[in-house]
Amino acid sequence: MASTPMAPSEDAAILGRPTVADLQGDSHYAQIARKHWLTSVKAPKVKPDVIKQELWDHLEKEGFAFGSLMLLEQLQLIERYLWPGYTEESSNYHVLLLALMVIVKKREGLPAWEHLSSRPAEFPSFFRRILSMSIDYTLSSAIRMHLVSFIIGAFQSMDSGLVRRECAPLVSIGIWDNLHSEAAREAKFEKNSMLKKAWRGAAKRFEAADESTKGKLRFERSWLFTLLIDFLDRIYDTTISAAEDNIRYCERFVEFLSDLQSQPPTRRYVNSLIRDLNLLPAMRLSPAFNDEENGLFRELYNLLRHYAYFPIDDQTGQQLSSAQYHQKHCTALARLQRVALKHFKDKLAVLVLSNLGSLEQRADLEGHLESLTVPELVELCTVLGFRTEYPTSSFVAQTRSFLLELLLSAHERKPTYQETLRDLSTLPTESTLYETTFLRNETYNGSRPLAIPKLNLMYLAMGDFLWRSFILNRCEAFYEIRKDMEDAIKRLQPRSTGSVTKFEGFSKMALPITKPAIVEVLPPRVGELSPAEVRAEVILDVSRLSPGIRKEWESLRPGDIVFLLSVQAVDENRGFGNEISVQSVANRQGLKHLRSAEVIKMMDENGRSLREMPLDQGDKLTHRPRRRRLIVKLDTVTYKEDKERADKGKPDIYEAINVIVRRKGRENNFKPILDSIKHLALSRISAPGWFQDVFLGIGDPAGASYKRLPNRLKSIDFRDTFLDWQHLIESLPGSTVEPNEAINSSYGPPYVLETSTDEAQPAITRGSKKRRRGQTETSQQASMDHVKISTYKPLNTGPYPADVPKLNTVRFTPAQVEAINSGTQPGLTVILGPPGTGKTDVATQIINNIYHNFPAQRTLLVAHSNQALNQLFQKITALDIDERHLLRLGHGEEELETESSYSKHGRVESFLEIGARYMAEVTRLAASINAPGDHGSSCETADYFNLVYIEPAWKKYIDRVQSNECTAEEAIEVFPFHQYFATAHQPLFSPDAPKDEIIETALGCYRHIEKLFSELEDIRPFEILRSGRDKANYLLIKEARIIAMTSTHAAMRRQEIANLGFHYDNVVMEEAAQITEIESFIPLALQNSDKDGELPLQRVVLCGDHLQNSPIIQNLAFRQYANLEQSLFLRLVRLGVPTVLLDRQGRARPSLAALYKWRYPSLGDLPLVSTPPEFLSANAGFRYDYQFIDVPDYKGHGEMEPTPHFIQNLGEAEYAVAIYMYMRLLGYSAEKISILCTYAGQRALVMDVLGHRCRGNRLFGMPGKMQGRNAETDRTDIILSLTRTTRPGYLRDIRRLTVALSRARLGLYVLGRREVFETSYELRDAFGLLLQRPAKLMLTTGEIHPTERRVEDDVLETEMDGVEHLGQYVVEMTKAKVEALKARGGVLPPAHEERLDEDEDMADGELGRNDEMEGDEPIAGEGPEGMEWL
Predict the structure, then answer these.
(1) Dihedral pair phi/psi, residue 297, rounded to 5°
(2) Position 1416 confidence tier, pLDDT thresholds 50, 70, 90
(3) What does the alpha-carbon distance between residue 27 and residue 21 come to, in Å, rounded to a whole number?
(4) Does the bond joining 987 to the residue before it have cis omega, within 30 degrees of 0?
(5) β pairing state of 1277-1281 and 517-522
(6) How many alpha carbons fall within 13 Å on the CB side of residue 569?
(7) How far apart are CA 1266 and CA 1273, in angstroms?
(8) Which residues make Cβ contacts (< 8 Å) with residue 608, sequence separation at least 6?
(9) Where does 946-1046 have alpha helices with state H?
(10) Of 54, 479, 646, 1262, which shows the fewest CB atoms inside 10 Å?
(11) Residue 917 CB: number of other CB atoms within 10 A?
(12) Is residue 769 scored above 50 in pLDDT?
């Protein structure tokens, strides 16, 4: 095939996605699609002229514009035409178009390989043709760049067996056939004997193969080597190295090499080949590298260099410690000295005698080697084992500079990633905010790679994972800060008046200030150069601020980060030309300098701390405050650099600072999080030994499950997990259940299960001893679990109702029981819970079982949002768990709907209150036995009273009643605590009870007393400790056994908590699929590691659903290119880690659940959604329980965008409010109706319409705020506004659609534009059901909620012709209802208004910056983060 130009269009990538008009219009591609595949019922036959002339040639003319490629992708080119019609005889154009479509899908985050897996037999030939064309030199650089992009996507999808089978041979040990000498290969084998065995095995397979297979093996061995040689030629060939297409190909190829180097399976043999080819030294000397225009190429080189020299053993995967890395470096230097002494004694005598510290310096070593001639350098390189010869056609020249670079790069000291990381600040300046790399990240459109690490399926080591996480999270934090600073400057509207900058605008997040005053500079600590601390005072003029905004400024807390800016007006007449320096880019935004500062305290004009003032003092102010004094800490390293700069005569930066900027609290926690990641990366911490390999993605994916661990529990007390014997039998399908020998029939709980497994016996097989890929040597027979059931009588815990244990009432399904069993066992448990399947109940029962089976262990409970954490915590408090062992950390504790406070300080106060109550009980107990003295004055005296009076009295009693001579009547008569238990239910002892029952009752009474003194013993330290901080910390590290916090709080407080000596054994994580990888790891590392560097954890339980929401990442580059939105939960699922799928939902009607069941093929329904009347009854006033309502343009408009990314749809907003009003008139409760908007802009608009039509109207009121304990069960009816009328937007991500469709329980009414969503291939399953019903709202008249009509009953229906029709109908209903109330003398419902939270105020449209990704925290653990609740 002839070479064709294929310059990618960056502008096209920035353009919007194809609209409905594009898909249904008369464009060339739309017409071709309708003609050849969209209207065909059967798979159409592919016509080569259509591929070449109608598609390829037109794309080629357009420069393969990304907008056209996206249009073809949405026209289902790959699904309906290219792939069904692919054969081995298909043209190269056909193959290239397939590759381009896969690239588009990968770039858009859509499923790609799933479509190709529909014809697995054809995939190998297709993939092989891609590989062949990638080394076809007749193709243009642009085409080959896209082929490399396709291959990159393939190597990033090694979790697909289809892809892995084709990719793995390309990086196997066979590529070592291209090492420059046999000696080089033998040197590798000497270090690891298993390598030689693998090499021999590969050689035997090659010799035994037929000619066609040998050809395939030769191709696999040489493919990567061929690409590497071609790459070297490209960067050295001066005739093409400067060409734009060529440098873009080279950039993409370096990205590919970095990806290979960053994962253990692909790195294992590739790194040796890259080092053997001297690729890095060659790149450094190449014309392409040294061209000033190729900054991205140099940055990609640095990333590749980082991975190539990462301190890890390529074969074992063991990360090298600093000492081991240094020893390896010294060994190489010592070898250089030995070779120099043997072969070049005269010329390199000084080198031989030099110390290693001198030799590792590039300049010193270069000076030693200057005396050698080129032939001598060649000889030295050869003896040291370096390649010195390349193919004769290669452009790599064997020059002196090249040979010197080989030796210098191999022996110079290379800083470790820890040393590089240590120098990176977590506080930004204008230089770091506007680094070229960061600016490239901001303008990323997919056409070029980025020089940032990616989160892959696997990691080289724990240090590698932490390094990547720090770099990416730092980039994302600085990106968001830069956006906030630019927004604040824009709102302030700086204007220049002579030499002074004035501000004509206003921003509530920024204030103009005078220069800060440096009030204290502490001298450096020993061994440091920067000051120990630098304090400054900033005067804030708050006289013109509204009370609300002033209060926000006064609420700045110690530790908050503020930003001091030097802002100048931008001279619009000044041209910046082609300047690309950091300062020039910052100046274009009006930002001259930026310094970060940490708040110490906020004071009033008189120097009094505002935090120490009484809470109500602000309300008693008789005058408006004019000034506030803010004391801050400056970054000492930056301050030192600034002072040195000023000492050299340059302007003092602090003299020019004129603006202070703050950020919202939820967004401004970046520094403690980055500090936590940085500290972990600089340490030698690792995951628990049983979890390490699985976490890194290497080894057996099932290696961390309890069935593979040696400490698997043989017997577990399931307590109240099973409700009865029948429930137990139903919960163990496939297991042999054997009751205890002592009991012949079924019996009630509690149950203790002792499990034994018949090990799978290998079936004897005959045939060849050789095993081919994909085959196993033996077939395993199915194993069978034998479960032996025993029981026990629960202890009598006392005569009072409070002594009776709280029991579980949930009838768990078999899948839930398996999840509970796995979570109670040691090891890793991954629970996949579709919507409504009871993940929270399962997690609660796991915690309950661990609490009672392992009283000495402590459990950390983590969730992404406060709502989910509180819901789980509230369910825990309803079980038999002592509340003194519960602790809730973070600011969400105040939202807990419980009578007790579970925060640290709330728990301390609770302990003291309980102590006072218990000591009163001690006083009463002492009085009941006539013990003289004040025994209830303190915990210490109570303990003395117990030892001296209670224990002897009880021992005397129990000894007496257990003797054979004691009768039942005597046992009652001599009981010493009759008077104390007089307040219990009487009679305390049944007169007719046998002696054993009387003794058991007495034991229960004594256990009640024992618990009293036991809890007083736990409270005693709180009497001794004086400071509140010490009491709170003691509670955390000693007393609490179940500690709950959000993942963000854990990340912020990691070091502080670990330094306290906090220890825990188990981690249970809710919403795990919505938590980023690093925020999933930090909760595992809130304690210090053991002596081996491992974390002492016994259990990790992850509950989530990767088919719903993922972590929210604002920046496209980090979300799409770096894969920062990847959760640990999703990665473990992709790796094949065993999961427990909860397969019964109990939230929605079966008909509503069918809208998302296609995502969960095995999902069934619980009886509770089929039998209760509310699920059988129809929705009053509606013909259908769910319906898609097509909303046309309203007043000539569909979706609108008043500010960038702030998307609204007035027609849908009016329609949603009209449906809400209609439901309220029929008697639906406002608390049971929710309006769900897919965009923040739409939410703001709906709020405006609600405020205008419903606020203050007693007939309607406002929708209930669906949060808290019963959020999921109370939210019965959902009105969903999809908003978009031109394109599906982010709902094309089926995870978001799954969330949107799975919120309702009884009714779902979806407002949208039919033509937008019915054309999307990804959404076809859900909308196929929705669109089977009429697209206009169908109502039933004459019904009041609730109705007795069944869902399936036929009924007369009324069609609403549009929002105007429904609105008029609601108006008439309202008038009729008011008249009826007046006629009957009725009274309107009392007014009830729910105040909106401050963060729900949409006044300035500030939530619209990235509307597609903006959202509240999820509701009740499963709410959509990218959607907005009302």
Answers:
(1) -60, -40
(2) very low
(3) 9
(4) yes
(5) unpaired
(6) 16
(7) 10
(8) none
(9) 951-961, 968-973, 995-1024, 1028-1034
(10) 646
(11) 10
(12) no
Structure tokens at 140: 């243009």
- Confidence category of residue 12, pLDDT binned at 50, 70, 90: very low
The per-residue pLDDT for 1398 is 33
Phi and psi at 1294, nearest 5°, equal -65, -15
Q: What is the pLDDT, as a whole number, of residue 624?
A: 73
In whole angstroms, what is the distance from residue 550 CA to residue 545 CA?
6
CB environment 250-275: b (16+ within 10 A), e (fewer): bbbbbbbbbbbbbbbbbbbbbbbbbb
- Give CA–CA dist 990/1001, Å, rounded: 10
Among the listed residues 405, 572, 431, 569, the one whose alpha carbon sits nearest the alpha carbon of residue 503: 569
Note whether 1425 and 1416 are within 8 A (CB).
yes
| Structural tokens at position 738 | 């054997």
Contact 1203, 1408 (CB under 8 A): yes
- Cis peptide leading into 391, omega within 30 of 0? no
- 388 exposed, middle or buried (CB, 10 Å; 0-12, 13-18, 19+)? middle
Question: Residue 159 and residue 1133: Cα distance in Å, rounded?
Answer: 9
Which segments of 1262-1398 are extended strands (E)? 1277-1281, 1307-1312, 1338-1339, 1358-1359
Residue 1430: pLDDT above 60?
Answer: no
Distance CA 54, CA 61 (A): 11
Q: Judge whether residue 1294 has pLDDT over 70.
A: yes
Can you tell me the distance from the alpha carbon of 1294 to that of 1159, in angstroms, rounded to the nearest whole number? 9
DSSP assignment of 243-294 equals: SHHHHHHHHHHHHHHHHHHTSHHHHHHHHHHHHHTTHHHHHHHSHHHH-TT-
pLDDT above 70 coverage of the chain, percent: 89
With beta carbons less than 8 A apart as the criterion, state whether 789 and 751 touch. Answer: yes
3-state secondary structure of 634: strand
Q: Residues 513-518: contacts with CB within 8 Å, 24+ apart? A: 513/538, 513/539, 513/540, 513/541, 513/657, 513/658, 513/659, 513/660, 514/539, 514/658, 515/654, 515/655, 515/656, 515/657, 515/658, 516/564, 516/632, 516/654, 516/657, 518/634, 518/654
Of 597, 592, 659, 562, nearest to 433 by C-alpha is: 592
- Output the six-digit token pair for 1251: 């405020």
Residues 6+ apart with CB under 8 A from 787: 732, 735, 736, 737, 738, 753, 754, 755
The count of C-alpha atoms lying within 13 angstroms of the C-alpha of 652, restricted to the half-sphere facing its C-beta, is 9
Q: The pTM is what?
A: 0.91
C-alpha pair distances (Å), 741 with each of 737, 750, 1359 = 12, 17, 68
Tokens of 821: 């069993």
The one-character DSSP state at 53 is: I
The b-or-e profile of 204-214 (16+ CB within 10 A means b, else e) is ebeeeeeeeee
The alpha carbon of residue 1199 and the mean position of all alpha carbons in its chain are separated, in whole angstroms, by: 31
What is the sign, positive or negative, of the torsion defined by CA atoms of 1041, 1045, 1047, 1050?
A: negative
Our separate counts of H helices and E strands in the chain read: 59, 33
Prior bond of 750 cis (ω within 30°): yes
Check pLDDT > 50 for residue 210: yes
The CA distance from 1219 to 1338, in Å, is 11
Burial class (CB in 10 A: 0-12, 13-18, 19+), 778: exposed
The stretch 284-294 carries a mean pLDDT of 92
Contact 368, 348 (CB under 8 A): yes
Q: Which residues, in sequence order, are bridge partners of residue 860?
A: 1043, 1067
Share the mean pLDDT of the chain.
Answer: 87
Arithmetic mean of pLDDT, 93-98:
96
Q: Phi and psi for 1158 in degrees, rounded to 5? A: -65, -20
DSSP assignment string, 1020-1059: HHHHH--SHHHHHHHIIIII-SEEEEEHHHHHHHHHHHHH
Q: What is the pLDDT of residue 810?
A: 92
Q: Give the distance between the most distant pair of CA atoms in the chain.
A: 118
